[in-house]
Amino acid sequence: MSKVLVGFDFSSGSANAVDVAIDIANRFQQDLRLVYVKEKNQDEVPIRAEIERRNAGVAHLLKGIKMEYVIREGKVSRELCAQAKEDDAFLIVVGTHGMSGFEKNWIGRNTYRTIAESPYPVLTMREDFNFRKSLERIVVPIDSSSDTRQKVPAAANFAKAFGAELHILGLYTTDNKTIKGIVDSYVNQVDNYLTKANVKHVCNFVNVPKNLTVTTLEYADQVDADMIVIMTEQETSLASFLLGNYAQQMLTMSTRPVLSIRPEEVNSFAK
């Protein structure tokens, strides 16, 4: 069985991430592992004692799954990804005000690097998100890049597990009819895929006047979305939307959880 990993320290942001990860792990019946990355020469004894105390407090929430923890030493992103590979992670969950305080510069370093380096999906969430709200609507932006559809199966799995509705958002980044036709074709393929999979969904299209991230977030605000699913590379033909800028913009600007999916060389869904 693969595991849901949670980047954990003792901040409220990472504690919220643990709560969300437990819910996800229960729904997908995946074991859970907390990953604490300590500083060099930091004493593990009090760390273990506090983690075990906190784990005992939420043990009653586990439904047929196990929750374990590991303490590693080194760079946060590197150690999270290394543990994910060891566990063949189902998902990595990170609270964006956790992991050593997570000030704004953390968004540009550890979260970005974790997403960029991890071959596994990464769910990031801000500390101030309303975690008591159920997961009802998930926004899935679709553009003209060949990899854009790869995130759909993961989004569909979340929608099924939570009984949520997918909002497939076709993004027109240009007036070029050929490019717009590609977006139309991709959205149609996604529509057919989700219909056959019996996943509740709606499809909409919007023009992107300037910024892909802003347009996606404005739509998410309009439908009161609870999650946004993105690829770690988006519209790679446009310099301003390369991995670094798009991912960092979404992480910095979104007040909603963001699920980041890394493109694969072979897109089986697109075949």
Total number of strands: 10
Spans of at least 5 consecutive residues with low confidence: 98-108, 234-244, 265-271
CATH fold group of the largest domain: Rossmann fold
Helix count, per DSSP?
8
- Strand % is 15-25%
Q: CATH superfamily name of the largest domain? A: HUPs
User: What is the C-alpha radius of gyration, as a whole number of Å?
Assistant: 18 Å
- Quaternary structure classification: single chain
Structural class, by secondary structure, is alpha/beta
CATH architecture of the largest domain: 3-Layer(aba) Sandwich
- Overall, the morphology is globular
C-alpha termini separation: 28 Å
The helix content, as a percent range, equals 40-55%
| H-E string | EHEHEHEHEEHEHEHEHE
Number of domains: 2
What's this model, at a glance?
Helices cover 41% and strands 22% of the residues.
Account of the protein in words:
The chain has 271 residues and is α/β, with parallel strands linked by helices. It folds into two domains: 3-125, Rossmann fold (3-Layer(aba) Sandwich), CATH 3.40.50.620; 137-261, 3-Layer(aba) Sandwich (Rossmann fold). It is built from eight helices and ten strands. It has helices spanning 12-28, 44-58, 76-87, 104-117, 152-162, 177-196, 212-222, 243-253, and strands spanning 3-7, 31-38, 67-73, 91-95, 122-125, 137-142, 165-172, 201-207, 227-231, 258-261. Strands 3-2-1-4-5-10-9-6-7-8 form a ten-stranded mixed beta sheet, with helices on both faces. Strand 6, helix 5 and strand 7 (165-172) form a beta-alpha-beta unit. Helix 3 packs parallel to helix 4 (104-117), helix 4 crosses helix 8 (243-253) and helix 7 packs parallel to helix 8. The longest helix is centred in the last third of the chain and has 20 residues, at 177-196.
